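Regression test attached.
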Amino acid sequence: MTDRKRKELTISLLGIAPAVLVLLVFRAYPIGSVIWNSLTNWDGLFKHDFIGLRNYLRIFRTDYFWKTLANCFIMFINVPIQIVIGLVVSMLLYEKTPGWRFFRSLYYLPQIVSAVIVGYLFAIFFSYDGPVNELLRFAGAPKLAIEWLGRRPTAIGVVITALIWINIGWQGVLMLGGLSSINPSVFESAKMDGANFFQRTFYILLPMIGRVIEYSFIYSVAWTFTGLFPFIYSITNGGPGYDTTTLDFLVYQKAFREDSALGEACALAVILLAIVSVLTLFQRRLSDRANSWSE
Amino acid sequence: MPGRKPLKPGPVLVFLAFLVLGASFVFPFLYMFLNAFKSTPEYYKSTFKLPEHYNWANFATMVSQFRIQVNMLNSLFISMSAVLLTTAVGMLAAYVFAKRPFRKSHAVYLVIIFSMFMPNQVTLIPLYFLYSKLGLINTPFAVIICSLAAGIPACIMLLTAYFKGIPDEICEAAILDGCGFFGIIRNVIFPLGKPAIAVNATFVFLRTWNDFLTPLVLLTKRETQTVVVALSALVSRYQSDPPYQMAGLTIATIPAIVMYLFLQKYLVEGVNAGSIK
Amino acid sequence: MAMKRFVLLLSILMIITSVSAIAQAKPVTLTFWCGSAYYNSDEAKKPQSEWAITKIVKQFEALNPGVTVDVTPIEVSSETIAKFKAAAIAKNGPDVIELWTGSYLFPLKDILVPLNKYISAEDRKNISGWDAVTYNFEKNGDILAYPIGNNYAGLVYNKALIKAAGMDWDKNPPKTSEDFRTALKKIKETGVVPFGFDGSKGRILHYATIYWWVEESGYERLVTNANGTTKYEDDKGFINLMTYMRSLYEDGLTNADAATSVDYDSKFSTGKYAVTVGGVNNAKAFEAALGPENFGFLPFPSMSARPKVKASIIGGAGNCVAIGNYSKNRDLAVKFVSFLSSKASFIALTKSVTTFPARTDVTLDDLGWTNDPFRQKIFELSKNFAFWVDNSIPAYQYDEMKRFFPNILTGRLSPQDFAKQMDKLVQDKK
């Protein structure tokens, strides 16, 4: 009996072995390595001495780090906006407006296109001679036709617009899924009782899909820290100055674009890792959600 | 018109709002597609007019000169391999977590899920040097493995949840029929788990196809690059010829859109299952 | 019996080893990462087999049977250099690589072959620009590469548009930076953009206007600023350059999108800008678009009252080819690099690539430029040039200038504050 049990256990372990092995080699090892290297003055070549926390201390002294961090927090504006728009969209979809399936498909479209392509389209659209300015000039407001990507507020605005634009569909579909799990009879009876759209929204829908919103919020915040690279790369390239550089872009910049900065790049990566890990700890509900799927 | 339906104009307004929002999603793609037909002077004259002639010369240039088809094939190979590997590895593990839990297996599961959000930027620096030592830079293998490592956690989460819903009795019946570990997977788990596997495959494919950072760093030779990475070379090479850029962007977008048309159902399900974007 | 078998085994082994030794000795592959000094942007759009460099490589292969050269086109950039470093420490980098000279090259000393003892006397004599590839510009330092393309840059203009503004810069070019400003104002009245460039890509800096800094401050000052013994903050030349560029933007004498432009060259080609920055390498496209009769080169107007450097053009050997010190075919690689830099190769290359050969023994006649006024003029001016400023200061410092230049143009960062920021950067790096 114990022999059989042991054999069963061995088979189970062998079953998860490939996944665990891949994650150990391609996730755990690099993370360990990055933490170790963040404590060295590695220049990408042969200089590789332990220098303790000096990289971190230097990073905390620089202006660009704090600016970059500030940019990340400013970029968070995209999260509430996309959630609100996504929520409104999902509720309207839920009301089964004519053609709602078509609109749902349409809104989701940007999600399946590569973020870089979306980024390049935004860069073209908001370039000085691009369609947006052309429209503004045509509409008789040439004063508004400015260099969108040349100044911090407008450049960040363009990036945020892109983030919202690409995510509305995702939010809409996600929230619609949440709404669909609500028992329709609750909703119908409220409608019968003469509750208008806003009453239905605030008193019935929002409380019931609170968990979905919470999930979406945490997910989107984590995404804002780690998923912005292609947008920044294609729209502003982090510029002007460090005005639109985000932490994930900065790691790439330091590691693969500038000389002699690999130790520092690793330290930045560790900081990014720490932030994302804290967010992930908040995310325990995530697995609960998945568990409820099959029901 | 006594008070029964006070919100009569509502649906019309909503429909209009939908249309306007919808237009904002169609317009950029339409703009990209139509301007791909123009010549450069025509583009600069007006970007909003319809093209005078629908000639496919710019697309032909992308194929004959930029050789974008090579990059498309790379993308296809890398994405398909990532899908197959992720599914295989993920399915094995998910089956164990769902149907053959052992002591501490839940802890292992949680650790795996936790690694889902590890940003690629963090792991890429050491991996780049590791691959470089092994001579794997500029090979599809390097990207496939990264995609596998990034995709496993979400895959396991999704499949475990779904496999848990498969009744134990079916598995037990299969065991009585003499099925071993792989027999159960082949005869029970895979056929019954197909919907979740399809959802996961769709997501892994799209994510790998659209991924930018990992292949950007790991593939430096033009002929080994994926199409999304090649686009950055395209955009800088045709800096002063936007129609060519548009043609290239269009070509790179089409496969994803085609996939979307066929696999939309799985995407919607995937989003609702809390899968990765 | 056992003995017989042993001998048989031994002889088979020997045959195998000798065959494999021959097989190994015979075909040698040199890997070559070649950048834009060897192919131009038009070629880049065509299949690689049609490029001029491919033909030159074929010749080398024909002269050296058993040798194949694997040419990988790259864009020399900080990204490429970072990747080259990673490949080099893994000992699987290219045998031969194109790089930038000066301060971009020196940090790579530990992974490159010092060429001093390999360079033939003939090459040393006939090739120009050795100082740009000698470690830290020291007199007898390690030579880390062969200099290749000589690019020269300055201000280029559209003669028709200058004429429309009532000027003739062939006869009467603006002599000082204030003359230049006045001239730009005149051009503005005619309704075209006087001075168009791309501040975000940094070309305006490294191509051209950065000359005004070194004109006032001199090259020694660049070195002392860079190592922290003097300060950017009280470097008059640096502040003047930035202030001047800012004032041009402020007065509306530049393109309105100078901070983000990516297409200044096509705008200049289509007659939307009167003046832009340019050099030998983009001249070809400009000439083709404007017609050679409408394309002019403007020697730098002087900004300084007491210039430390007096030149009318900026440039020199900006690119070079180096050999990785992990290369298993070091001698062959040297032979190849020397072949690439031969007079014949350069002349063949110059048909497609626009940079000037880095050789002292190539005449205008050799290149077929005797009836080419633009290149003649450059050739003449290049006898007195200022060396690239960006190749003279550490890359991280120039990166910072490039990155913040748009903010200076748009007035979000004052030149003084930026100079302080530069000093802080230098101190932090120490």
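Expected vs. actual: identical. DSSP finds 15 helices and no strands in chain A.
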